[in-house]
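Record format v2
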Amino acid sequence: MTAIFAIAGVVIKELYRRKDFYVLFILTVLVTGVMALANFFDDDKMVGYLKEICLLLIWISALAIAVATAARQIPAERENRTIFPLLAKPVTRGRVITGKFLGCWLASGLSLIMFYGFLGVVSASRDHHFPAVNYFQAMWLQWVFLAVVIAMVILGSIVFAAPSSNATICVIAVAGMLFMGRYLKMIALTQPEPVRSILYTLYFVMPHLEWFDVRELVIHGRGLVPWVDCGLATLYGAAYTAVFLFAAWICFRRKALN
Amino acid sequence: MSSIVEIKGLRVVFRSRGIGEHAKVAIDGLNLSVQKGEVFGFLGPNGAGKTTTMNVLLGFVNASGGSASLFGVDVREPIARQRIGYLPELTYYYKFLTVEELLRFYARIFGIPRREADKRIDDLIKLVELEPARKRAIKHYSKGMQQRVGLAQALINNPDLLILDEPTSGLDPLGRMKVRDIIHRLKNEGRTVFFSSHELGEVEMVCDRVAILHEGKVRVEGRLADLLQKYHANLEQIFLQIIGYQPPIRP
């Protein structure tokens, strides 16, 4: 375990020594801050819109940080050849994959804490109301969502050579799952065979990332997701994360590094 | 004497990557044994298979045939690398870390307790004379300083076997002397050093035994003193003769 935490620690150090995170955070603060100052048409629903935009920015920024960080981990190790002194130590490739995943996931968690902290400040200052438990649940589910995405990107980084192509493919896949996932079954019904069976299979095989998106509940103050459902969603996310990481380990295990 | 490095019938074939490209036999039936306390020079021209052999020993490349072991443990087992230190030819380190952070990272990988790691890090930073720069990120170091970082990380676990790939390449004469001193010190402590080099003068100064590799096969292996006596020549002349180099005829 020590090796896994050591590798994760380096990933986190790299994130906070790079500028990406700060740029995204400052952009989110600026966009939301400017919107918070404006009071369009004396609309009472302004706070709701503000929260919606803030949460959208948080989702986009967190996804960008997670994908960009995870996509470069293994390719950068190979490109900069830092993988050689690392694997010359008594560390398995499975631990390298796990350490990289853990580092990216913890780093994403730290970013989420900062983003949601800012959302809390915006919400408390304009809405005079701070539903901490709702924010915690939304943040937790988003963090589980990011675990699935990071594991998928790490698998992609072993299959595809270039981090940019991997990041692009993964962002498109995640967007597809988020926006199309819930409709895939309905689309399948309208299609002839064999497209119907293919779409059905895809519907049941792919991770339903949209289940982790509870922004609507937060924005409109519709209460909490039952904690049992929240726990099941966590297990569902953990299962997909494990599958992706296992596949990544299988691909990386016998890969020649010369 | 017990074998620290044992290679038997090693064969490495790189598969073709494109249409019309043939598979390349990098190593063909290599047999090698390095004993405890030896300084072993692994020589050969570029493309002879030295780095591939080292990559197999370090678990980066899988053998297509034969076997390789370190301390009697198959090289495919990560535990085989518990007692080795590896210095790559070029500096491949996380450049956003300081030397202190990098050494602490590798100490954690080896599972060295924190107090012991602190002491060892201090000693190594002193040994490679990087004390004034210990809090600076490695990306701001000169090439020679980065090479010294490499040496420090290779020694963090107090290794019984040190694998050095071109350890003196890119170093100034002072740096080379320091590397030689460290190799001598490790030899005096009864440790084993396995290194590849093109600097045949350096090899003559530090090695007990050498092997000359050419086209994936060991052409000559033996005690350095015996080889020099047998061929009545220096190491460079032996090397050129073994690889079949014909000097150009001058008019």
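Residues 173-188 of chain B form the longest helix (16 residues).
Residues 36 and 192 of chain B are 6 Å apart (CA to CA).
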